[in-house]
Each structure stands twice: as C-alpha cells, then as structure tokens.
Write a structure and sequence with these properties.
By secondary structure, the protein is of the alpha/beta class. It contains twelve helices and 15 strands. It folds into three domains: 176 residues, Type I PLP-dependent aspartate aminotransferase-like (Major domain) (Aspartate Aminotransferase, domain 2, 3-Layer(aba) Sandwich), CATH 3.40.640.10; 99 residues, Aspartate Aminotransferase, domain 1 (Alpha-Beta Complex), CATH 3.90.1150.10; 40 residues, no CATH class. Helices cover 36% and strands 16% of the residues. Helix 1 links the parallel strand 1 and strand 2. Helix 8 packs across helix 9. The longest helix has 17 residues. 37% of the residues are buried. Bound molecules: pyridoxal-5'-phosphate. The site of pyridoxal-5'-phosphate has 8 residues, from loops.
Length: 352
C-alpha cells in the first residue's frame, strides 16, 4: 500500500506468501509474477534470479507498463537466499523500490557464516518476523526501511490503517528485548547454533538413505541459511509427513516445515546438543527400519521451472477476484474455472 496505488504493477514471485496477495487486494495492485526455479526431486522452490527480475522489468516495458515495486521472498522458508545485491542494483537503475519479505531472516548478518541481510545489500524495505528466528513473542515483527525511494509518510499512514491504535506493549517490549539480546553479544550470539547445525549436518550426512539440501542444489541458489536444515527422505520410501510423524512421536523432534519429500528443521538460539543427538538417533532409526533404494542419478534433470504454474493465466486482479461473486465447486469440476487464489487451489490439490 505504501508503494503501489490501484492499477500499479508489483513484480513478485509466484509462490509468495498469502500476505503479499492480501496486500494486492488492499492496494489494488496488479501482479507481474516471476516463476521461481523448482527442484522436483526435493519438491522445493528456489529463489528468484537477477536475470528473471531484469526480464520482468523489460517485459513490462514492452507492454508500456512500469513496475511500482519489486517484492522478493528471501530467505525462503527453506533458507534459500536470492542475490539481493544484484537484484537491488537492477531495480534501482529503474528507480524501482525493492521490498523484501525477510520473514525468515531476522538473524541474517549477525554471524560471518550467515548470509548478509537484504538491507545491507540495498533493499528499501525489509519485513522481518522477529518472532520466528529470534526470541520475541509470537506476532511481533519489524519493518525496516532505508533510502528515499519509498515515501515514509505513506508507510506511516498505511501502518496506521492496518494496525491497532492500541499497540501491545508486551509485544513491543519483547521486540526490544530481542534487539538488546542481539546487540549485547552480536559477534558471538549465533556461534553455538551454527556449530550445532554444522555438527548435525556432518553426523546426518553419514546416515544411509538421508539427503541434505546443500548449496548449490539449484543454479539460482545464491546462498542458503546454515541454520535451516532440509532433510530428504525419499530414498527411504518415506514422505516428509511420515518421517515427521515418527520423529515427533518417538523422538520428540518437532520439524519447522514438512513437505512431500523432505522436512526442514530450524536451529536457533534455544537449540541444545541434546536436540541434535535426538534428531540423529531418529534419522538413524528411520534409515535402519526403511527400505533404502539407490540415489537417483543425474540430479540436474530434476531442476526445472515450476511448470505446473507456467500455464496459469491471470483473468482478473487479486482485488477484483476477492470482491467477485464466487461459488464452490469440487476440484474435479474446477477445470476451466477461475480460482480466486492459487493458494486456495494448491491447498485443494494437496487435500485430494
Ligand atoms: C515467507 C513468509 N512471509 C510472511 C509470513 C507471515 O509472517 P507472520 O506469521 O509473522 O505474519 C510467513 C509466515 O510463515 C512466511 O513464511
């Protein structure tokens, strides 16, 4: 709302969080989607590349349109970071502001092993879910801004419109405590979490049938957050959901994110060595009790565009779709119909 007026175009990744779609409903912005690279073997989407951003700007120019802003999700839930430095450079050469959904990156830049923050790479706005990776209370987040491409007064007015006029001092105090915790020991605060994540990687890499998502599995990986560990279990004949059930019920290991072929663990300031040992014990158990098949060769062929999204056309703006009259149909009867949001469609497909 601070960067796009009704009818303006926002460039953003096709698999953005639903909050970005809601922002387009509220502002009336039109999307220009970038389809991220996708790895079928892992069933995981990557980031977006500087050349994809450049192409999107050029395509809009050919249609006589100009982007009002670019929104990037970096890091993704799996910890995959885009090359924000180059992306910001390209956008700024066209005076296009860069907004980063850094929900999973409030810790970036606070250790030499961690990728740099998007602000340090030139982003104009970065939204961080401080509660996800640092120690503030759930629902507390921060919006950072720099430079003068984005109108500060409009940011302030948009926030006034979206937020309660009675802020929670509990949440604000917890944000301040998280900030203080980082600033008091900024050089060493993540040492233990990083060491434990490296130790876990090393122990897990020796377990037969278990894969670890490493940099660079995708050509568009720029960097990966070492504190997100994505573990593939398809060689054991298990889905991420099945592995998660066993790890949770029998070993007390709670995964951050579960997918069809893998699950992701988040290491943070509260992670202890005992957690790593329980995880390794759980994975050894999975490896010993499952049917291990040989790894698939020629990994390069598994990386492709998110082809299932390629032939989806935009029939109306997110705002028009939100206010349009709708009816419910079964997923089987939905062929040829217009869906309000891809998020809803993907949700339905996974329920089948
Ligand atoms: C990529 C991404 N962006 C935004 C959000 C929303 O963050 P919050 O839950 O702090 O509102 C999430 C939540 O999971 C997310 O994964």
């Amino acid at each position: 709302m601070a960067t796009c007026s009704p009818g303006d175009t926002l460039i953003l990744p096709r698999n953005c969080h639903i909050s970005a779609i809601s922002a387009m409903v509220l502002s009336g912005a039109l999307p220009k989607y970038i389809v991220p690279e996708y790895d079928f073997k892992w069933d995981v989407a990557g980031g977006i590349t500087p050349s994809q951003v450049n192409d999107a700007i050029k395509e809009l120019e050919m249609e006589g349109r100009k982007a009002a802003a670019l929104l990037v999700v970096s890091p993704t839930y799996h910890g995959i970071c885009s090359n924000m430095d180059e992306i910001c450079h390209i956008c700024h050469s066209y005076n296009i502001p860069v907004i980063v959904d850094e929900a999973h990156g409030a810790h970036l830049g606070f250790h030499p092993e961690l990728p740099s923050s998007s602000l340090s790479q030139g982003a104009d706005l970065a939204v961080q879910s401080t509660h996800k990776v640092l120690c503030s209370l759930t629902q507390s987040s921060m919006l950072h801004m720099q430079g003068n491409l984005v109108d500060r007064e409009r940011i302030s007015k948009s926030l006034q419109m979206l937020q309660s006029s009675s802020p929670s001092y509990l949440l604000l105090a917890s944000l301040d405590a998280a900030r203080a915790q980082l600033s008091e020991n900024r050089e060493a605060i993540f040492d233990k979490a990083i060491d434990l994540a490296l130790e876990a990687r090393s122990l897990i890499s020796k377990i037969p049938g278990i894969s670890i998502l490493e940099f660079p599995s995708f050509s568009s990986f720029f960097q990966i957050d070492p504190l997100r560990l994505t573990i593939g279990v398809w060689q054991l004949g298990l889905s991420g959901f099945e592995a998660d059930d066993i790890l949770c019920n029998d070993f007390g290991v709670v995964c951050e994110l579960v997918g069809t072929k893998s699950f992701t663990l988040a290491f943070n300031l509260g992670t202890q060595r005992d957690h790593v040992l329980r995880l390794v014990a759980g994975l050894k158990h999975l490896s010993q009790t499952s049917h291990f098949s040989q790894p698939v060769k020629d990994e390069g062929k598994n990386v492709n565009h998110f082809v299932c999204l390629d032939d989806i056309r935009i029939s109306m703006s997110p705002r028009e779709a939100f206010f349009a009259t709708k009816r419910k149909v079964s997923i089987r009867d939905s062929l040829g119909e217009i869906v309000e949001s891809l998020y809803v469609l993907i949700h339905l497909v996974f329920q089948l």
